[in-house]
Known about the structure:
Blueprint: E1 6-10, H1 17-25, E2 36-37, E3 40-41, E4 52-55, H2 67-77, H3 82-95, H4 111-123, E5 129-133, H5 141-158, E6 162-165, H6 169-175, E7 178-183, E8 186-187, E9 191-192
Parallel strand pairs: 1-6, 1-7, 4-5, 5-6
Antiparallel strand pairs: 2-3, 7-8, 7-9
Helix pairs in contact: 2-3, 2-4
Amino acid sequence: MVSGEVVAIMGPSGAGKTTLLRLICGLDRADAGTIAIHGADVTRVAPHRRGVGLVPQDDALYPHLTLGDNIALPLARRGIAGVERRRRVAEIASLLQISDLLRRKPGAVSGGQRRRASIGRALVADPAILLMDEPLSSLDESLRTELRDLLGGWLRERKATALIVTHDRLDADAIASRVLTLRDGVLDAGRPVP
């Protein structure tokens, strides 16, 4: 995977797709080999120091925080405060069309709106690499299509480096520049998306 590339990983359940993302972001520890992000070995680097944004399969939002505060968490952890933090959260919320929901808590919004906030939390810090585990799987078809287009456009515009796990070929083709298949823990060489 090269810098600025968006790669989709597909494969059957149990193939190791989620495990691969957990290894890259440091939630699981590798038994062997090296994990490199933009050429730097991060195998033994703490997860919060890897520059990785993760959109997990479940939304993993803090229920006691507003959507705005959930989105702002990575910025707060980096010490970004005040006007700059509010500006970045507003920009991402606008992109994801949840600006009017920032003061609500996760329990007071729909599943699709929670999913957008979860994606926003990963995007707001402008990570070195963005990892997304089935980011669109729980959405109805119209919302899925809309968010697929928004996300794909944002990634291309930013020349972001991203790895997306999906079971949906339409998601993979619309968002990624290359699609890999993972079977029994082994990745194929991939093919460019036409």
